[in-house]
Amino acid sequence: MSRPIQIHNHPFRFLLYREWILLAVAALSEVSPYPFRRIPRLPLLTFSSIAAYGAIGLRLPTGKHIHKLIYTCLEILLISVTTFAGGMRLFPFPYIVLVIRSCLIFQLPGRLVITSLSFSLFLLTLLRWFQNFLARPVLQNKLRFFLLSYALLFGLSLAFVLLLMNALLTERQSREKLVSANEKLRQFMDGVAATREITKRFAGTKILVLTTFDDDEYVAAALRHGAMGYLLKDTPSEELAAAIRAIHKGYTQLAPGLVEKIIAKVPTASPAPPPSWDDLTPREQDVLQLIAKGASNREIAQSLYISEGTVKNHVTNILTRLNLRDRTQAAIFAHSFLPQSDDFK
What percent of the chain has pLDDT over 70? Predict the structure, then answer.
């Protein structure tokens, strides 16, 4: 059975503090002036129900479904008591708290049900509150627009809270699964073996190796078995994020200094360029020579007296005709016969 969520193991403790703030605002609104004196109010019962609603948030059930349902019913009961004891005063914050808690204890279907229920209960309260103005025809037309606007705004607020909580929980669950997978992999295989198994079982998966090892053989083995990127764990987070996006688009990403090591490990091919070399135009061959030397697009443009846009077009044509993924593969391809080819002199 899963442990209940309490203060010491709450996944988002800052949300718990914000719950208390929202409930405190609801409690303070009880002492504000209220236009409907004829409706009986029970301030002590209102404060007590709000306090109880905040207290049960200190322990959220995560085990059996029956416990979750009982807990949710208790929440709804306390919200109803708060509303009616407050003389049908509008208390929107407890409904928001209800959605937040439902996201912590239910899966997505349950969260959607509770969010819809919260909105329905709020609409019921809003309609009952509007009935207090039926005896005042002058106010009815003015309040209809307020009623619709308030309902729409509150519905959007609940939807925003639901989406935000889903995003936070998904990110956290993904992080936990990643840590768990990392620990399990360490017990049975290294990164190279894991890369080989992943590419074997899940063809098309793009793999970025993030490790502390920069050994030449280790890097070459990971790339040989299908890794599209190899970065060290001290890579800044901004560069890591950019590398992930680049790999998703199909580009290879290597840590600084690794390209030279990999190229140095490329075995020497035949003295003559491969047949695919003749598929390139003379200008594309010139561009590929400079790519093999590590030149950037700007440096290639300056060297060949052409624009950077033209260089990009040549690079795209080179990759397409040689059936290569990116510049790194192009550099390795050219470097494999560059020293022996007279065409590069």
Answer: 77
